[in-house]
Amino acid sequence: MSENDKLTEEIIFEAATDEFLDRGMDGARMQNIADKAGINKALLHYYYRTKDKMFNAVFEKIAEKILSRFAPVFDETLTLEEKIRFFYREHITFLQDNPRLPAFILNEINRNPARLRRVLSTIDIHSFWNKLEEQHRDELVRYNITKEKIPQIMTTIAAISVFPFAARGIFEELFKKLDISFDEYLEERKEFAADFVIKALRK
Amino acid sequence: MSENDKLTEEIIFEAATDEFLDRGMDGARMQNIADKAGINKALLHYYYRTKDKMFNAVFEKIAEKILSRFAPVFDETLTLEEKIRFFYREHITFLQDNPRLPAFILNEINRNPARLRRVLSTIDIHSFWNKLEEQHRDELVRYNITKEKIPQIMTTIAAISVFPFAARGIFEELFKKLDISFDEYLEERKEFAADFVIKALRK
DNA sequence: GTCTATAGAAGGATAGAC
DNA sequence: GTCTATCCTTCTATAGAC
Which CATH class is domain B3-58? Predict the structure, then answer.
């Protein structure tokens, strides 16, 4: 009974996730979600009331999934180099399993920045940086990484793994035309990215 | 007369560009475009027949603008290092003037890859790489850049300048919270990006 | 070429039966 | 909890006057 309710709600949630990831908030259709879930439109409203509320549920679940997956990176006791290698292996593998997430998140936040504000209000960004600074104080000196350079470096590190997925439509089309395998490119990228960044950071 | 026609069509085109850049194909509204252009909806259809055709006109104009702006990079007679510096100065400056283009292009191509196919059919990608290879044959050897690494390197170079704009919503929100100026970050990035890449490429 | 008025379709949401 | 039927708004597109 309540078992079955939970099941239906979950089926709807997964269908909604699929539709929103594919078409975004504006392009998604309630009828498509109902079809994918194998139920009718009215039931969507019974569980989630409005399309907007349904979208928010999906968006926040995805945001939480991403955050909970990468917060632990800051707790690992590894050298800076090891941490960079660890990050790229984990991150690119995660994105291989969830290739639609970057474009979805980027696009929906560009359309409505308030969505990010709610997510950000639940975490303390400074604490992440403080952890890094404590764990790697001497290494940062050795690499000549000053506090001012941190935004440039952090965003560069993220760009290298996220961009191929954010621009996946372009990459896949371009690679096809150039006879390159996107999958192989991603496998190689786990190591290439780490090598590239570490070399760029060395004095 | 025909002067005035041209003017009206251009005013509509610019209003459409603004609306599509802001909301994308799915989110854009014909009524908004009419309002921005200071005319009524019927006139939009008189000039462009359908929303879809209007979108295609805007999309292709933007794609052409980007391509025509960066094809010349491959013709410049500069060393590889100079070319990388030149690229980042030009590219980031261009994106500062057109900050909405990356998210728009990426998103619309992800939604409908066929749009890229039409653009790609008009250019010869291989010729760009051939030009680079001819101009920098000895430098590529010196840097140990093999043919296999090209996709990794080229996509990394692009990622570093495009990503901050593709993820602009996130960056602006995050930087605000961290009390960092996005504008200053972008100015610094022109040189940082070049330094970073050149250092990573050196043996 | 430009407008007003409206057709016609699509999509989100609800009422009410079971 | 789930369904069918339907309302109502929004949006693209067209008809027809000027």
Answer: mainly alpha
